[in-house]
Amino acid sequence: MKTPALRSALGPRETQVLELLWDRGRAMTVRHLLTEFPALAYTTLQTTLDRLYRKGLLIRLKQGRAFSFEPRCSREGLLSELVSKHFVDVLAASRVNTGILSTLVQCVGERDAALLDELEALIQAERIRLQQDK
User: What pTM was estimated for this model as a whole?
Assistant: First the structure.
C-alpha cells in the first residue's frame, strides 16, 4: 500500500485493489484481478470491487456477462478530494484559521522549500480567479 491517506480512508483490501487498478491503467474484470490476489476467493474480490463502486471510486463497465472495473479518477485526484474534504472540516471546526494555515505553510516548507513557491503561485492564481468571478 503506497498511499497513507488512502489507507486511512479505505480498508486495506480496498486500497490494494484500487492501487493495482491505478498501476495497470486499464479496466479489469474480477477474473483478471484474481491472478493478482490468489489467496482471495472470487466472491471476496467481487464484493470488494462492488464496495468501491458503491463508494463512487470505481466505474463499472459491462463486458459480456461480466463487469470490468476502472478507477473513477487518478490517484492524485482522489487524494485531492480526500484532503479537500478534511481541510474544509478542519477550517469549519476552528474559530481562528491562522494557526491552521500557518501549520500548512510550515509543513509544506519542511517537505520542500520549492513547494512554497508553488503554493504562493496557487494563491495568486486563486486571488485572480476570485476577482474575475466578482
Answer: 0.72
Distances (CA, A) of 33 to 20, 44, 60, 103: 9, 12, 14, 41
Instruction: Tell me the C-alpha distance between 54 and 31, whole Å.
Output: 20
> What fold does the segment set 4-71 form as a domain?
Arc Repressor Mutant, subunit A (1.10.10)
Amino acid identity, position 7: R
CA 20, 22, 23, 26 dihedral sign is positive
> How do residues 21-80 score in pLDDT, each as one tens digit?
999 999 999 999 999 999 999 999 999 999 999 999 999 999 899 999 999 999 999 988
Which long-range contacts (C-beta less than 8 Å, at least 24 apart) are formed by 60-63? 61/27, 63/27, 63/29
